[in-house]
Specification:
By secondary structure, the protein is mostly beta strands. The chain has a domain at 1-100: 3 Solenoid (Pectate Lyase C-like). The chain contains two helices and 22 strands. The chain has helices at residues 3-11, 15-29; strands at residues 39-41, 44-46, 59-61, 64-66, 79-81, 84-86, 89-91, 94-96, 99-101, 104-106, 109-116, 119-126, 129-135, 138-146, 149-155, 158-161, 164-166, 169-171, 178-181, 183-186, 189-191, 199-201. The strands form two sheets. It has a 15-stranded parallel beta sheet that branches. Strands 7, 8, 11, 13, 15, 18 and 21 form a seven-stranded parallel beta sheet that branches. Pfam families: Pentapeptide_4 (PF13599).
């Protein structure tokens, strides 16, 4: 099944038909199909399991994604703009230039992901989990994380500007390789973690970890 044919199935919003088509393709070809270069706009997608599928250069714009799985996906150049993500999981994901912009994510999980130059801007994360994330050149700008927790998040470089961490738990997090400016902390629980200069508490005092 071609990427174009598979994307048409996604646009119907019928997760069961999509899953059957993916299983049939894997049985016939010995590999999962690809959605590379597909574009989705204004879709309401619930219960879709994209696990293991190549989503390189896929665009999701003004979509609502509910309880969708992206485990083991390739997210090279994947673009998510003005979307709402609810209870979605990203585990074992690899992505070069994975962009999130103007989006709201609630109760989503990112675990054991290797991102190269993820660019996350103008977005809100509510009660989300970031765990065992690595990779270079993390670029977070005008992003707020409220609730949830980060565990073992260790980017090897990048830039964080106007990032707010609020009412969260940080454990074994090391952001010291990142440049940070105009970043804020509020009501945080921080254990065995290192944050760069540029993160200050709302009182205006620099946070000493």
């Amino acid at each position: 099944m071609s990427s174009n044919e598979l994307s048409k199935l996604v646009k119907t919003g019928n997760a069961k038909k999509f899953h059957r088509a993916v299983e049939k393709h894997e049985e016939e070809h010995g590999e999962l199909p690809s959605l590379e270069m597909a574009s989705f706009s204004g879709q309401n997608l619930a219960g879709f399991d994209f696990s293991g599928i190549d989503l390189s250069n896929v665009a999701f714009e003004e979509c609502t994604l509910t309880e969708c799985r992206f485990d083991g996906c390739v997210l090279n150049g994947t673009y998510v703009h003005s979307c709402t993500l609810l209870n979605c999981t990203f585990e074992g994901v690899e992505g070069d230039d994975f962009s999130l912009d103007a989006s709201t994510l609630s109760r989503c999980e990112f675990k054991e992901c290797n991102f190269v130059f993820p660019e996350w801007t103008d977005s809100q994360f509510n009660d989300c989990t970031l765990e065992k994330l690595i990779g270079p050149d993390y670029n977070f700008e005008r992003v707020t994380f409220k609730g949830g927790h980060w565990h073992d998040v260790v980017p090897t470089g990048g830039e964080m500007r106007f990032v707010t961490l609020r009412e969260m738990e940080l454990k074994d997090v090391d952001l010291s390789a990142c440049q940070a400016s105009s970043c804020y902390l509020s009501a945080m629980s921080i254990t065995d973690s290192v944050l760069p200069d540029g993160f200050v508490e709302k009182t205006g005092r620099r946070r000493v970890v």
